[in-house]
């Protein structure tokens, strides 16, 4: 297969050679890439075929999984940069790559040798347009941290303010772009030549990785994320989000306030910062849980190195390159799921989880329910087995892949982040009970979501959406008629098909009528709840009568729908 002009041939050879040397020869031959491997390498490998990792369809899948995880991690380490980041992302997707691969890839360390201070200074001067001596009173030449995409230096501004300066690694943008193009090309090859990979959607996985990494390569995105978090926790004295120094920030340079603290897992130094491990554990969980269930905007990598403990039981967050977002509907499903968890309602929890996932005709819903019920019952009834609440939820999510049920990346990211958060809390306080912390909090949230004002607002939004749909119908009908006049639309209906369509249209009309009746009754009831002086009729609360009336109408329409469906 010819390579597209955009692909860096030299980089492709390097990648293929590394995987070939690590035993992926069978895979490379199946993908028709063996011609890229130097002849002498192929000749040497010919005598060591037994050491190769078998490719599915040549052996059982369970057999190839035995050696693949370690070799895949080694390949990512040798290729560095983009592949380390990609391996770390795959470590979050146990639902796609299998838990053994995810566990092994979690060992990847995003620590690489730092680049020279001369290159760092040159990037800063080019981006900010001034010499280092004018920009900073002091600039520490040894970086305080170095990763595959960037490194951080401590500095002091002319006004004496301490800052952390994050600088992109020179040339990293071009390298990442090249590697992403290659990964996208390989994803197409996988789907074309290895049919079993299609259900794991390699193209979609690479596209998500490309989106995440591209955003990380523009430090202005991280600056915006920081300001978003600062707004969420504005006025809270025990939570610090370092502010952005905007005049010292660009696409390749990010300057923020410098915070003096200790990593959250540095247990020996808690006395130095006069902080209680139990209080920090509770604060850390409260901080993170609010991001999931209230804000819908959460830190994507809440490991201890990104959480600093400050004096007097305060917490500081760092590294906002990866964040997750969930919409209001998803937050409500998560709240419902965790409430059912805590009430030991396995069926309800599974229903909520399935609402978060993507399913199709090939999805094994019943098999998923059976497996997940076993996971939940272990947490419900065998607390001594060591199963945690967060781990149970994570296992639910990652078990979907085996049943053709795929969860969005933000849900998988959130599930993994909750596991990390609970693990961090238990490290600080082994007696920490996350279920006990969550139950009253989620009940308060649920009560808030069911307030008449909130329900009335959602009802108004539903009515507006329905009105917009009705407004669109005439235009859509006119367009359809024009196409029919031009003979651009052909319709052939059998009598039976026509009757089926008619029934479906009638059923949809009844459903809309039910929705409008329910919303109208909901709005009326919400208004009556706020009226004074006519709260009861014959001793019965008027709001209760409204609810009964709405329920009666709903039952009548449901009976009509059922009768028509039969």
TrEMBL record:
<dbReference type="InterPro" id="IPR011009">
    <property type="entry name" value="Kinase-like_dom_sf"/>
</dbReference>
<dbReference type="InterPro" id="IPR004147">
    <property type="entry name" value="ABC1_dom"/>
</dbReference>
<dbReference type="Pfam" id="PF03109">
    <property type="entry name" value="ABC1"/>
</dbReference>
<feature type="domain" description="ABC1 atypical kinase-like">
    <location>
        <begin position="107"/>
        <end position="350"/>
    </location>
</feature>
<feature type="transmembrane region" description="Helical">
    <location>
        <begin position="537"/>
        <end position="559"/>
    </location>
</feature>
<keyword id="KW-0472">Membrane</keyword>
<keyword id="KW-0812">Transmembrane</keyword>
<protein>
    <recommendedName>
        <fullName>ABC1 atypical kinase-like domain-containing protein</fullName>
    </recommendedName>
</protein>
<comment type="similarity">
    <text>Belongs to the protein kinase superfamily. ADCK protein kinase family.</text>
</comment>
<dbReference type="InterPro" id="IPR050154">
    <property type="entry name" value="UbiB_kinase"/>
</dbReference>
<keyword id="KW-1133">Transmembrane helix</keyword>
């Amino acid at each position: 297969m010819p390579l597209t002009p955009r692909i860096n041939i030299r980089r492709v050879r390097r990648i293929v050679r590394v995987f070939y040397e690590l035993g992926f020869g069978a895979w490379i031959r199946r993908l028709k890439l063996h011609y890229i491997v130097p002849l002498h390498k192929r000749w040497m490998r010919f005598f060591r075929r037994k050491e190769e990792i078998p490719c599915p369809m040549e052996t059982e899948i369970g057999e190839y999984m035995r050696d693949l995880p370690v070799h895949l991690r080694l390949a990512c380490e040798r290729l560095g940069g983009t592949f380390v980041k990609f391996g770390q992302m795959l470590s979050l997707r146990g639902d796609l790559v299998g838990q053994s691969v995810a566990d092994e890839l979690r060992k990847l360390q995003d620590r690489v040798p730092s680049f020279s201070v001369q290159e760092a200074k040159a990037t800063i001067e080019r981006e900010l347009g001034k010499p280092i001596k004018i920009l900073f009173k002091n600039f520490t030449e040894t970086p305080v941290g170095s990763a595959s995409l960037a490194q951080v230096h401590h500095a002091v501004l002319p006004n004496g303010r301490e800052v952390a300066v994050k600088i992109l690694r020179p040339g990293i943008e071009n390298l990442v772009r090249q590697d992403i193009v290659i990964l996208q090309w390989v994803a197409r090859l996988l789907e074309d030549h290895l049919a079993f990979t299609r259900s794991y959607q390699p193209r979609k996985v690479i596209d998500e990785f490309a989106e995440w990494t591209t955003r990380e390569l523009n430090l202005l995105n991280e600056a915006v994320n920081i300001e978003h978090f600062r707004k969420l926790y504005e006025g809270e004295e025990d939570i610090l989000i370092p502010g952005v120094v905007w005049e010292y920030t660009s696409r390749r340079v990010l300057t923020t306030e410098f915070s003096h603290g200790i990593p959250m897992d540095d247990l020996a130094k808690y006395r130095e910062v006069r902080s209680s491990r139990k209080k920090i554990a509770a604060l850390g969980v409260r901080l993170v849980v609010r991001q999931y269930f209230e804000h819908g905007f959460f830190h994507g990598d809440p490991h201890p190195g990104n959480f600093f403990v400050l004096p007097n039981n305060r917490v500081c967050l760092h590294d906002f390159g990866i964040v997750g977002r969930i919409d209001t509907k998803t937050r409500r499903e998560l709240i419902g799921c965790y409430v059912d968890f805590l009430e030991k309602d396995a069926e309800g929890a599974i229903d909520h989880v399935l609402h978060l996932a993507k399913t199709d005709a090939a999805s094994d819903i019943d098999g998923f329910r059976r497996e997940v019920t076993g996971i939940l019952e272990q947490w419900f009834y065998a607390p001594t087995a060591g199963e945690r609440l967060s781990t149970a939820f994570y296992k639910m999510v990652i078990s979907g892949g085996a049943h053709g049920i795929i969860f969005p990346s933000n849900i998988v990211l959130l599930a993994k982040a909750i596991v990390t958060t609970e693990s961090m809390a238990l490290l600080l306080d082994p007696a920490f009970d996350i279920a006990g912390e969550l139950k009253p909090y989620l009940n308060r949230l649920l009560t808030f979501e069911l307030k008449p004002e909130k329900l009335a607002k959602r009802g108004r939004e539903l009515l507006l959406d329905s009105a917009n749909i009705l407004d669109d119908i005439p235009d859509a009908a006119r367009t359809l008629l024009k196409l029919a006049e031009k003979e651009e639309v052909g319709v052939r209906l059998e009598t039976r098909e026509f009757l089926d369509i008619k029934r479906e249209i009638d059923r949809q009309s009844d459903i809309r009528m039910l929705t409008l009746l329910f919303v109208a009754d909901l709005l009326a009831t919400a208004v009556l709840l706020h009226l004074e002086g006519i709260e009861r009729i014959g001793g019965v609360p008027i709001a209760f009568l409204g609810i009964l009336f709405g329920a009666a109408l709903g039952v009548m329409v449901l009976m009509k729908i059922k009768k028509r469906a039969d």
